[in-house]
Amino acid sequence: MSGRLAAAFGGHRLALVSAALLVSITLAVAAAPLLAAILGVDPDEVNLLARFQGPSLAHPLGTDELGRDVALRLLYGGRVSLAVGLAAAVLAAAFGTAVGLVAGYRGGLVDAALMRLTDGVIALPLLPLLIVLAAIDPAKLPGLGWLVAGEDASLYRIVAIVVLVGWTTIARLVRGAALSLRGRDYVLAAESYGASALRIMVVHILPGVTTPIIVATTLAVGNVILFESVLSFLGLGIQPPTPSWGNMLTNAQELIYDAPALVIWPGAAIFLTVIACNFLGDGLQDALDPRARRD
Fold this sequence. Notes:
By secondary structure, the protein is mainly alpha-helical. It has one domain (3-39, 80-292): MetI-like (MetI-like fold), CATH 1.10.3720.10. The protein is built from 13 helices and no strands. The protein has helices spanning 3-10, 13-30, 32-39, 70-106, 108-123, 126-135, 153-165, 168-181, 185-192, 197-205, 210-233, 245-252, 261-288. The longest helix has 37 residues, at 70-106. The radius of gyration is 22 Å and the shape is elongated.
């Protein structure tokens, strides 16, 4: 990031705070196995004799309804929720970028067909569609039983479902930018020298559309985490015993009056992470968009 870009980003205080918060959350969840080793606690160990304990040195945030350490489950749940958010956002951005580049550069019937497909996906109600897709059992579909094999099967399913419907925004943004760039002199010069369409799109057009890709991907991470939390809360997302912030809320919803902290901690983690992603996206847009900067 150049000095001018750094100064523009540095002027966005909420974005700086959000970046620092996201880095702190990432480091904390990455250190979860180390913290578990230091405390000598297994986050999945059930101890019914230690249910609903208050904060202590052994259990910094207390224990849940099964006597499991809340702090460690919160950190391990964060690993899952952040992994889903990052993976789905990046994969959706990659697919949407490919669609947008081809549509914007090729134009004509190719552009029309890809954009009608994009419009069709956008027209679908997102949350109900995610719920329907998440409710489908791959084990009952021919040839897809391998999708439910292993403990991480629900994680992969959520990523695949979000990617399937979450690429449209970036596709439209990239397509619009590619349309404006394909008539530039350096693109026309590359065409005159016989460069292939793939090389022109990747080498000459793609660098010019990185700003909307970065901003949209950053914002998408928060949205994906929110969608994963909703699906897990409904029992259609990450399945126990694998913890995530969403299924931690599911387990605690019936205990909100007896043990409100079990709801507050994962809820606060979701809220802070999503709002930080949104503020960071706004800050990056202000810093990277020349029209948003003042000399």
